[in-house]
Write a structure and sequence with these properties.
Structural class: mainly alpha
Order of helices and strands: HHHHHHHHHH
Largest sheet: none
Radius of gyration: 23 Å
Number of strands: 0
Length: about 200
Amino acid sequence: EETPAPLSPAQDGFQISAEDVFSEFKKGVSKVVKPGDVDTHYDLGIAYKEMGLLPDAIGEFELAMQGAAGKAREVDCYVMVASCKTLQGDAAGAVVAFRQGLELPQIAEDQTKALLFEVASAYEGMGRVGKALTYYQRVAALDGAYREANAQVKRLLGDGAEPEDDPVEPAVEVVHFRQHFRNFAKSSRLQRDPFP
C-alpha cells in the first residue's frame, strides 16, 4: 500500500510570499517608528540596502533626511541614496544625490573630499571624463593624496581629457576657502582656527 506524499505548503494553503511578509513588516514598522526618528529610518535604510531592497532603502534614507535637515546625518543620507542609485545602475541619479550632499552647508571637509571623489568616479563611469577630471581636480586641490586624486588627474590628462565646467556648489567654495585659510594660518602666527 502506497503512502500519500505530504502536501507541499502551496497545496496546503499556508504558503506566504516573502513580499507579503515584508509588506506586513513595513506596516508594523510604520506604526511603531515615528517619521522624525532619524536613526531608526537610517538603520532601516542600511538593512534594506544590505538585503538588496534598494527602493525601500532609498525611501528610508529620504525619511531620515527629512528629520536630519541641517545636521551632519543629512549628508550621510544623501551619500546612502547615491550609493543605492549606483547599485541600481543609475549613475546619473547618484551624481544628483552626491551633488545635493555637496550643497549642504553643514558638510565637513572629509565628507566634501569623499563626495567630490564619488562624483568624479560616477562621471568617469558614465564616460564623462571631462567632468570627472574637473571633480578629481577639486579633490586634489583639497588633498592630492586623498584616494590618489593627483594620480587620477594625471591619468586623465595623460589620456587627453580636458576639464569640463560643472558649476561649483556653494558649500564646496566655502570648504576651499576654509582649507586655504587653514593652510595660511598654519604657515603664519595665527593661534586658533576660526573654523572649528
